[in-house]
Design brief:
There is one protein chain. The protein is an alpha+beta fold. It is built from 5 helices and 7 strands; from the N terminus they run E-E-E-E-H-H-H-E-H-H-E-E. It is globular, with a radius of gyration of 16 Å. The N and C termini lie far apart (39 Å). The C terminus is likely disordered.
């Protein structure tokens, strides 16, 4: 059996005319593909007006308005691990924890323009800021 291919480094965030248009993230649990591989790192691009309007005419959304976030996320997620064909079926198979994370990430990227969040330590109750895009503690 051949050894697995070496891991590829994620592409740098895309920029268009100095505007950051793609944001890296790390899922709390990870997407498990059909082969059982867990994918945690991914990227999401900024949403366009078309991205937000298109789900409104989707029959699945008309039948079940809760499906709107599945369709919307599937349009703006550019990759999850090695999966680059992110469609509604991929988002449907994600754990609820990861979908909730991505919904919040989408809101932060598209409404607030950043991926940082204020948090409070449960032990000392000290406040600090974390980057939701997947950086590890202690990294800059």
């Amino acid at each position: 059996m051949a050894p697995p291919p070496p891991p590829t480094l994620p592409a740098p965030p895309r920029e268009e005319n100095g505007l950051r248009t793609e944001f890296e993230f790390e899922l709390p649990r990870g997407y498990v593909d059909e082969a059982g591989t867990v994918h945690r790192h991914g990227a999401m691009r900024l949403a366009t007006a078309r991205d937000e309007l298109r789900p409104q005419i989707d029959l699945r959304v008309k039948e079940n308005p809760a499906y709107l976030s599945v369709v919307l996320l599937s349009q703006v997620i550019t990759r999850i691990g090695t999966v680059t064909d992110v469609h509604a079926g991929v988002v449907e198979r994600m754990y609820a924890t990861d979908v909730a994370f991505l919904q919040d990430f989408y809101r932060r990227v598209n409404s607030e323009g950043h991926t940082r969040a204020a948090v409070t330590c449960p032990h000392c109750e000290g406040g600090f800021e974390v980057d939701l895009s997947g950086g590890r503690l202690g990294e800059s």
